[in-house]
Amino acid sequence: MDMESYTDMKTVVSYWMEGEINNFIKVWLSVYVSLSYCYLSGKIVAKGTTRLLSFLPVVGLFLLLPLKLHSMHLGGLTAFFIAWLANFKLLMFAFNNGPLSDPSLSLPRFLAIACLPIKLQNSQSENKNQITQTEKGHKSLMNYAIKGLLLALLIKIYDYTNYIHPTIMLGLYCFHVYFCLEITLAIAAALARALLGAELEPQFNEPYLSTSLQDFWGRRWNLMVSRILRPTVYVPVLIWSTNILGRKWAPLPAIMSTFVVSGLIHELIFYYLGRVNPTWEVTWFFLLHGACLMAEIAVKKSVKGRLHLPRIIATIFTVGFSMITGFWLFFPQLLRCKADERAFAEYVAVGAFVKDIFKALTFYT
């Protein structure tokens, strides 16, 4: 990295530390106040159109609040949690559906469930069941430690970007996004358990082991989004299409509709990150995967289990297809908003902040 780039990075770091955290606090205070209003409205206003109308100002506010943030990590996660997760959960709650519809929820738990992928522990039997299913929920500390070390290694490798082929860099970005999201959400899960006795739903289930697109999107990648899109998009379209196509083929339009909505929401998230007009490649990425998943399911229904690829071959094809299409349509849009440079600047900011804390502790001791 040359001196000019380093100077620019220091400028970004200075702005991020001085202004972004203040904006982050203001945004989340607004979120909590707004959700408290929704909590009270849910107790007073009957479900249906009237409750929906009372929630719409909050939904609109949650679409605007991410525009107050400019960092990749704080801004990106905030946009994901409130513009997507919270808004979809509020829309379900308006009709007394979804995780917020439990009348026994206290205000603190309502706030947590509304803006985070929270899964409450209700009984000892449920706790025991979760403990025995670590592959679907919690992973071992060693698992996260290894991924943390790999993420640190990736960040160090970025110092040599000028010597690495762009295609290899795109592959590294794939793992960067995966490691960063999983580790961030694991930290949030630990806080949720400590403060609320709640569980953060797993975001990933080792997606690099996927054996099909159905396995990749349905059981391994971005599981929180699957749980939100299923009751809000997939199920309603499935019910409608069953009356037209029958039960055998009804899932196909439901799947495509889900990918369309996912693509449009990702375009919105990318706009929050870069503040540049969409070029729709991200939407085409999801449309392509939706179409391929429909074809895969149609083939499976036709052969009825008579044909199976060896697991290693199926995994290579699935992960390879996902990465190649990501290189083509998904990651170039992140690079267009300089996501890599901005993310690295934020790591520098965090490192400088931690160093200042250690210096202060050393001085006073």
From TrEMBL:
One of its GO terms (cellular component) is membrane. It is found in: Membrane. The chain crosses the membrane at residues 21-42, 48-67, 74-95, 141-158, 170-196, 252-273, 279-299, 311-331. Its main location: membrane. The keyword Coiled coil does not apply. One of its GO terms (biological process) is lipid metabolic process. Keywords: Acyltransferase, Lipid metabolism, Membrane, Transferase, Transmembrane, Transmembrane helix. Residues 201-287 form the Wax synthase domain. GO terms for molecular function: acyltransferase activity. It is a multi-pass membrane protein. The keyword Membrane applies. Belongs to the wax synthase family. This is Acyl-CoA--sterol O-acyltransferase 1.
